[in-house]
């Protein structure tokens, strides 16, 4: 009683060698199967009007915010100089005083308390707050009515063969 030996098991069975003629036929068959419609990729520069509009709005709102904040800061510096009793004959103090008088929006004589310091504090303080409110209102309006709508239609071309 001789038991028959088990056939050897292989974990990896490499593909049998292929003759060159058969390899060419297989390659041609693969190319035929993979044939897809050819599409030519064309790159061109396009102008996105939405992006340029958003950029313009950002520049305008930044400019508005900068100018109105500058006016409010000048008014605040004028308040500090008056409260600290700075020399009004000094070049910087006279420049800030003249500039603050020009951007005070007519609030110079609005409040008339007994103290000159309180009058400057209330009048220029109110003008500074109004400048900040004007700046925020203008930037809101520009963004609200100038910005493109979020719902937009996108159109594109594609080739189908």
List keywords for this structure.
single chain; 161 residues; mainly alpha; 57% helix
Largest sheet: none
User: What is the straight-line distance between the termini?
Assistant: 71 Å
> What's the rounded overall pLDDT mean?
80
How many DSSP-defined strands? 0
- The parts where pLDDT drops under 50 for at least 5 residues are none
Number of helices: 4
Q: Structural class, judged by helices and strands?
A: mainly alpha
The string of secondary-structure elements, in order, is HHHH
CA-based shape: elongated
Q: How much is the radius of gyration in Å?
A: 39 Å
Percent helix among the residues?
55-70%
**Beta fraction:** under 5%
Keywords: Membrane, Transmembrane, Transmembrane helix
Transmembrane segments: 59-84, 121-142
Region (Disordered): 1-24
Describe the structure.
The chain is an all-alpha fold and 161 residues long. It has a domain at 50-146. 57% of the residues lie in helices and 0% in strands. The chain has four helices and no strands. It has helices at 20-33, 49-83, 91-102, 116-146. It is elongated, with a radius of gyration of 39 Å. The mean pLDDT is 80. The chain crosses the membrane at residues 59-84, 121-142. Keywords: Membrane, Transmembrane, Transmembrane helix. Residues 1-24 are annotated as: Disordered.
Brief overview, please?
The protein has 161 residues and is mainly α. It has helices spanning 20-33, 49-83, 91-102, 116-146.
Write the layout of secondary structure elements.
Blueprint (H helix, E strand, L loop, with lengths): L19 H14 L15 H35 L7 H12 L13 H31 L15
């Amino acid at each position: 009683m001789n038991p028959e030996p088990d056939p050897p098991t292989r974990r990896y069975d490499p593909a049998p060698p292929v003759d060159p003629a058969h390899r060419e036929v297989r390659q041609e068959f693969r190319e035929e199967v993979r044939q897809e419609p050819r599409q030519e990729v064309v790159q061109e520069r396009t102008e996105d009007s939405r992006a340029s509009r958003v950029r313009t709005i950002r520049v305008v709102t930044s400019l508005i915010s900068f100018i109105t904040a500058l006016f409010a800061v000048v008014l605040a510096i004028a308040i500090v100089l008056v409260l600290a009793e700075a020399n009004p004959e000094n070049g910087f103090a006279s420049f800030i005083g003249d500039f603050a008088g020009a951007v005070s929006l007519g609030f110079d004589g609005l409040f008339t308390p007994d103290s000159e310091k309180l009058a400057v504090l209330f009048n220029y303080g109110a003008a500074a707050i109004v400048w900040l409110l004007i700046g925020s209102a203008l930037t809101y309006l520009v963004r609200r009515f100038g910005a493109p709508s979020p719902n937009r239609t996108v159109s594109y071309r594609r080739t189908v063969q």
